[in-house]
Amino acid sequence: MGWAVPVTADALQTCLGSRRWPRTVDVRRRNAFELAPSVLPGATWRDHRAAAEWGREYRDAPWVVVYCAHGEQLSQGAAAVLRSAGVNASFLEGGFSAWHSLSAPTIARAKVGNLGPERPSRWVTATRPTVNQLACPWFVRRFVEPEALFHFVAAEHVAAVAQEIGAVAYDVLGVPFPPDPVGTTLEAMVSFFDVIDPPLQRLATIVQAADSGAFELAPQSAGVAALAAGLAAGAENEGERFAAALTLFDALYAWARSTEPAQVLPHAGAARALPQA
């Protein structure tokens, strides 16, 4: 037995940029989805009529949120079916329209599609302990694709490895991504995926200052640079450093959101409890 459990856009927004962010599933009709310029962070499109089939992929997910245009029959039906299959699923109350009404961050749909058909996507960069090299995987995991895989190799082999394994090469000279880079690779990624989010832009500014040593551009950057250097020195391997970096940038993003002007913070309704299994 399954029932449609709602979550408000306000409440969902409080989870943005953290490990609490759910697996998001876009169940708008295919033609509407393909015409839509943007999706929620990390969203994957699925056919709402086949929820019983693809729902098996989400049984181990801590939380899944499905959404359609207005939070009506498509997402409610899919959420109910997923719950029947043992998935901790909710539907977004008011759908994409409600999220958009908050001016909450979205991702350019076509840009995500350009990463290639394989999921999870693979990303390759150089093995080096820079703040930017730690921040970019965090951005991809939290805003673009939660299951993305990252590989770290010698700088001179990044492009060749990416070609061999069908990965996206980034943050080294001579690779095509992001195109027309500005500032750090993190800033270029945020721009490439058309993410408009003041706290994220603030975080990117701090990363740029920390990476370049221009600490006068952002007073927090010296501390971030020290923490990143500590992760590089103290972690036993790349996997441990990667996991610790996710926590570091989760905290930095939460700080950036909490110190933004009130109009970009979640509305008072965010205090409503998140749905439980």
Helix content: 40-55%
- As for the number of domains, it is 2
- Lateral arrangement of strands in the main beta sheet: 1-6-5-2-4
Sheet-strand content, in percent, reads 5-15%
Distance between the termini: 13 Å
Instruction: Report the radius of gyration as a whole number of Å.
Output: 19 Å
In the predicted model, the low-confidence regions spanning at least 5 consecutive residues are 262-277
- Quick one: overall form? globular
The overall pLDDT, averaged over residues, is: 87
- Based on DSSP secondary structure assignment, what is the total number of beta strands? 10
- What's the story with the biggest beta sheet? 5 strands, parallel
Number of helices: 12
Class based on secondary structure composition and strand pairing: alpha/beta
Order of helices and strands: EHEHEEHEHEHEHEHEHEHHHH
Element layout with pairings:
Elements: E1 6-7, H1 9-13, E2 23-26, H2 30-35, E3 38-39, E4 44-45, H3 51-54, E5 64-67, H4 73-84, E6 89-92, H5 95-101, E7 107-108, H6 109-113, E8 122-126, H7 131-144, E9 149-153, H8 158-165, E10 168-169, H9 185-192, H10 198-212, H11 221-234, H12 238-258
Parallel strand pairs: 1-6, 2-4, 2-5, 5-6, 8-9, 8-10
Antiparallel strand pairs: 3-7
Helix pairs in contact: 7-9, 7-12, 10-11, 10-12, 11-12
